[in-house]
Amino acid sequence: MEIKENSRRLLLLFFAFLLSASCHVGAQIQKEVHILSANDMHAKLGAFPALADVVDSLRTLYPGLLVFSAGDNRTGDPLNDMYDIPAYPMVALMNQVGFDATTLGNHEFDSGPKGLARLIGLSNFSYICANVHPADSLGIRLLPTKMFDVEGIRVGVVGAVALGTHGIPDTHPDNCRGIGFTPVVETVAKYEWLRRQSDVCIMLSHNGYEDDVASSAHLPWIDLIIGGHSHTQIGGGETHNGILITQNVNGLRRVTHTTIILERDNDSQPWRIVRKKADLIDLNRHQGRNVVVADMVRFFSNNPSFQRTLATVEQPFSSYEELGYLMADAFAEETGCDVGFENYGGVRYDEHPAGPFTVSDALSLDPFGNAAVVMELTGLELQRMLINCFDNDGQRFPLVSGVRCQVEREPKDSTRIKRLTLFNPDGSKFNLKKTYRVVTNNYVTTICDAPRHDQGTALNKKTSDLIISFLERRGSVNYKGVSRITEIKK
């Protein structure tokens, strides 16, 4: 009787084993890849304690978390950009947080080839950028691609940076000496072999939202584009041509947590992506702080000279234009020129509250260390140069002082100026035959190739110094509602 009972139990155990085995065979194996991505951080040191806390929390849940940047990590805070080793505070903080990789943004070139090579040498993370080709002698260590292993999932990453109208990233040409560049899509397409070696393919792209969308039609083997450059806030992520695209506004206000879910039926089959999703994390609202990173930020921020008040802002600045007019006025008045102008892209923030305007505020507004350049131009040469600046600065019209501008764009192509009419500040017509003293920065004189007899004389002054002295001399400023450029729409 006991033998029969034991036989029955063995038989039941055998059938239970068969049932379990068949469920295991039929069930799909699933894994996830988690990525936290930032873009255009622009040396926002104060956001790092919150960022580090978010990374710590996610790594507790997902030990294989990858942390990536889509470039422009530097340039924006003088505490970072004017450090003894320019931009080292950002590198130190990214090391501490545990970034895995970044691509190059145009502002990574702001301290020139030697400065870039030095920063890369101090970084514990990889710089991935396929369309940048430095001379070996510069010592700039870049990778076109890199493979990451996330718990057995192979994640292949390729990177690229946008090129401006002169075939280099948007920085002073001197910062790119000895470095070659190739077109983004054409270059990235050469790495399609990465698809065969990877379960997930990611592009770190400092090319701008519109170019990322356009690129998605030509790079079907990419699964995820982590974008930057245009500071476009995407609500989590957008799918274009089957590719998930993410990007956030600048200044490390938000980061993106992307989850990629993969499945396969058994160990002998390849992984397939079954779902991709992206969620925003608002660092401004995040309450947690990493205390070690907070101490590092306090250390790097210990420079009271940057907090010196230069002037009082009577009414808040609320646009790039208002702050750009202040810059142009500072250029013109501090050099005694008739006309001053600043390229739109050189204005680095778009609002400032009423109250103190500090040295730090001035250096953050104009962080590039550009030199002031004075030229003797006819009114016609000035007109042509303003149009040329528009063409070579992302189709954004420069901000001016000592002149008013009436702009009419081409009806069928808004990226082209059909007619530019200049007026004196009092509204009278500008004399195109008269010669004027004109001041701008040396970046503008380099990117603008409009015909002119005088290529300019660089003063022994930075444009940021002109802003500082202008504000100190004024004591208070109010640019609320100031407008010197009128667009005519027909």
Describe the model.
Helices cover about 30% and strands about 30% of the residues. It has about 500 residues and is of the alpha/beta class. The strands form six sheets. It has a six-stranded mixed beta sheet with strand order 4-3-2-1-13-14, with no helix packed on it. A six-stranded mixed beta sheet has the order 6-7-9-10-12-11. It has a five-stranded mixed beta sheet with strand order 19-16-22-18-23. A hairpin with a 2-residue loop joins strand 11 (about 240) and strand 12. Helix 4 packs antiparallel against helix 9 and helix 10 (about 320-335) crosses helix 14 (about 465-475). The protein is globular, with a radius of gyration of 27 Å. Mean pLDDT is about 95; it is low at about 1-25.
Please supply descriptive tags for the structure shown above.
490 residues, alpha/beta, six-stranded mixed β-sheet, 25 strands, disordered N terminus
